[in-house]
Each structure stands twice: as C-alpha cells, then as structure tokens.
C-alpha cells in the first residue's frame, strides 16, 4: 500500500510539472506574438482613435487635436542610468477637454524650465509618437499610497489623479512619450515585458523528468 501511494504521488508530480511546462511554452508563444505586435506598431504606428480598443504597450500617434496642460505631477523614486529622479506626468487635452495623462518620462529633478520645454515641444508638433498603458487605480505591491493633499506621488492611479485635478479622465489609457524629437532618451515599450517563459518551461520539464527517474529508481529497489 505504501509503495502504491509513493507511485501515485510521483505520477501526480510528473503530470503536474509536465503540464506546467506545456503551459509555459504556450505563454512563450503568446508573449513572442505580443512582442512582435508591439515592435510592428513601433515601426508603423497608426493615429490614435478614442473609441478603439488597444492592447497595452501599442504605439500610436497623437495628432494636433491633443495638447498638454502645464500642471505636472512627479512620480517619486524612478531610476534611470543609476540615477534617482522622477517620472513627470501632465494632463492631456483633446480638443480642449481633459482626456487622460501623458508620461513625459524620466527627469532628474523638478526643474520647471525643463518641464516647460518638454510641454512646449509637444504642443508645437502636429504628430507625436507615444505608447499606451492601461489607466487604472490598482496599487502595486509594496508601493506607498499617494498623498494627494501634499502632492506626493508614488504610482499612477486614475482615481487619485481625478481627485487631485478635480477632473474626470474619460480615457481607459494613459500615454508614455515615445518620440525622440520630444525626449532624447526613450525606452522601447517591449522592455516592460518579462519573457522568461522558456527558462520556466525547461525547469518544469526537468522536474518532470526527475520525478520519472526517481519513480523508476524506487520501483527498481522495491522489485
């Protein structure tokens, strides 16, 4: 009875780990397709349409209907090239109505002249490349709450920003600058995606194989 229980346990472990390996291969194919689509939109972005549903990290073009309000907030403790600074976000208008927020990227300090320059550049051009992020109110783990009364920010939160600006943002997305003529140092949106699924799959398959080997050894010892 004991040997049968051990056999069933190892069969269960083998099946489970093999299934998880197959699942990681599925996730690998899905992630590769997603990255391929992101890279494709970077090369050939379309004009943003308010009513269209987009995948997160899709690159689009904002035309001259969009303008920025010079009322920035600064997300604390953002690192670029081993330096601590901020991500600066400003409200974005569409035809003079508040629509969403635009992340202008990393800045080393809260220098108003630098921020003014970025905003003026955006408003000057008829077409600006950005990429899309989902605009929600989820707080990341281990990140402090925003203090909207003191204008101290640790993460992007739609409800907090609506309370702070006393405006309703109609978009389900916010935007991140992806245009070298506005910001010299920009990051590829695909870098936001971890793609370690092949390593995970190999690990699960090795565990599955190890379970089979252990089971064979135990059965051989017990005749």
Radius of gyration: 24 Å
**Helicity range of the residues?**
25-40%
End-to-end CA span = 14 Å
Mean pLDDT: 88
Unreliably modeled segments: none
- The coarse silhouette is elongated
User: How many DSSP helices?
Assistant: 4
Order of helices and strands: HEEEEEEHEHEH
Which secondary-structure class do the elements indicate? alpha+beta
Domain module count: 2
Q: What portion of residues belong to β-strands?
A: 15-25%
| Largest sheet report | 8 strands, mixed
Beta strands, count = 8
Can you walk through the features of this model?
The protein has 223 residues and is an alpha+beta fold. It has two domains: 60 residues; 132 residues, no CATH class. It has four helices and eight strands. Strands 1, 2, 3, 4, 5, 6, 7 and 8 form an eight-stranded mixed beta sheet that branches. Helix 1 packs antiparallel against helix 4. It is elongated.
Topology:
Layout lengths: L1 H42 L2 E2 L11 E4 L3 E3 L4 E8 L2 E12 L2 E11 L4 H13 L3 E7 L23 H8 L7 E5 L19 H25 L2
Parallel strand pairs: 1-2, 6-8
Antiparallel strand pairs: 2-7, 3-5, 4-5, 5-6, 7-8
Helix pairs in contact: 1-4
Q: Can you summarize this structure?
A:
This protein starts with a helix and ends with a helix. The chain has 223 residues and is α+β, with helices and mostly antiparallel strands.
């Amino acid at each position: 009875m004991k040997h049968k229980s051990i056999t069933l346990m190892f069969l269960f472990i083998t099946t489970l780990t093999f299934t998880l390996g197959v699942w990681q291969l599925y996730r690998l194919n899905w992630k590769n397709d997603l990255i391929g689509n992101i890279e494709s939109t970077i090369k050939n972005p379309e004009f943003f349409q308010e009513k269209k549903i987009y995948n997160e990290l899709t690159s689009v073009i904002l035309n001259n209907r969009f303008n920025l309000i010079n009322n920035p907030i600064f997300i604390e403790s953002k690192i670029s090239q081993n330096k601590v600074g901020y991500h600066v976000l400003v409200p974005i208008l569409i035809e003079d109505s508040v629509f969403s927020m635009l992340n202008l990227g990393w800045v080393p300090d809260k220098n108003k002249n630098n921020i003014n320059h970025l905003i003026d550049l955006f408003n000057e051009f008829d077409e600006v490349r950005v990429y899309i992020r989902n605009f929600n109110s989820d707080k990341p783990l281990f990140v402090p709450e925003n203090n909207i009364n003191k204008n101290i920010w640790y993460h992007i939160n739609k409800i907090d920003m609506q309370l702070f600006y006393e405006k309703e943002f109609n978009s389900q997305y916010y935007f991140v600058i992806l245009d070298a003529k506005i910001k010299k140092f920009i990051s590829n949106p695909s870098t936001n995606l971890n793609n370690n699924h092949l390593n995970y799959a190999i690990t699960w398959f090795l565990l599955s194989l190890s379970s089979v080997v252990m089971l064979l050894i135990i059965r051989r010892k017990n005749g």
